[in-house]
Amino acid sequence: MSKKNRFSIMPISSLFFSITFLAIGYGMVLTFIGVYLKKNGINDISIGLINACFFLGAILSSIFSQSIISKVGHIRSYTNFAALMVITFLVQYLFFNEFLWGILRFIAGFCYFSILIVIESWLNEKSTTDIRGKVLAIYEIIFYLSTALGQLFLTIDNLSSSIFILGSILVLVSIPSIALTKIKEPKLLPFERYSLPKIYDIVPLATTTSFIGGIFIGSFFTMAPVYVLEKYQSVHVVSYFMITVILGGLLAEWPIGIVSDKYGRRKIIAIVSFITAITSSLFLFIGQDTKLLYICAFLLGLTIFSLYPLSLARANDVLNEDSDILEISRTLLFTYGLGSFVAPIIVGFLFKYYDNSIFILYAVIGIFLTFYSLSKKRVADDELSTFVNVPLASGADIAHLDPRVEENNN
């Protein structure tokens, strides 16, 4: 990194500091919810519904939070959303009620993804065209590593529901660097959302891939821990399983990007989906062997985290100059959120009939996306855009950070 770019990034280091602690707390609590509910005898359908409320909050955040942030400002928005998140954690610690927890998870999802919009719009405001790709890469790495680190806290003995206290502390630690920042607050411009049918007509493969990517990620963070706990009866195994998948996702992003730039998104989406289906099938035969579990987990991580970035790249490949890439990117993120929302509900219902149903679902969806992808038109090599990595959790303003948006506007 050049000296010029290094000094360009330094002023936004406070944002990276905040998102580090926020993501640790987010990753830890999101995984722990399903584990805690399962250990307390809550049925799988209820667990799925409670977890789905988190992503319902995320969806509504992408619609309504921008208006709130524009009216009160970024600093006040961040501190208030963070405070509300802490309140939800503490109330969950004090009271155990399924209906109440659903409401609290909804509020937490709305607040968390609203905070991401605050962070991302700030990063975009302070990122020049020259360093936008680097800023997005740093943002992604922080997200993966911080979320993985959050899983390690689950291995601490005798923490149990105190995880909510620890999560509250981590979120609170993220506030001072934002509250005291001297970074100028950017203006959030209103945007008009495309309808999903219209987006599907324009970029059908991208829309389908983003939705399925949401199903994989939403069910992974919320219901995969429930499956692992049920099968291995160990929170430690849950923790290491989650870490292994997340690190696999981090390591795969750049190689998959390079390969997809060379051979095209359609083919790589098909290959990634097929590998997901095969890997998911292997989970049905590993028995109680934790080594095989971690190997399969790593292979799963290599594929499921790359589908959403691949969908964005595919959309950029096929869009014409008259298309609004920014709005389409936001709508694909919305579709991804819908997938994350329905996933816990579907898996929770399927768990009622078969313990391994989550991986059967993964295999079936993976095979479907493989053939669906191959059925779509190939994009010529000279029309391919450049693959860009995005974090595994993003707010509605992540599209502004995508360097391809800048290129399209030029």
TrEMBL record:
Molecular-function GO terms, alphabetical: transmembrane transporter activity
Cellular compartments annotated: Cell membrane
Superkingdom: Bacteria
Transmembrane segment boundaries: 12-33, 45-65, 77-96, 102-123, 135-156, 162-181, 202-228, 234-256, 268-286, 292-310, 331-351, 357-374
Protein's recorded name: MFS transporter
Keywords from the named record: Cell membrane, Membrane, Transmembrane, Transmembrane helix, Transport
Organism field: Malaciobacter molluscorum LMG 25693
Entry keyword Transmembrane helix: yes
PANTHER family: TRANSPORTER MFS SUPERFAMILY
Bilayer disposition of the protein: Multi-pass membrane protein
Cellular compartments per GO CC: plasma membrane
Cross-referenced InterPro entries: MFS, MFS_dom, MFS_trans_sf, MFS_YcaD-like, Sugar_transporter_CS
Domain Major facilitator superfamily (MFS) profile per the UniProt entry, residue ranges: 202-410
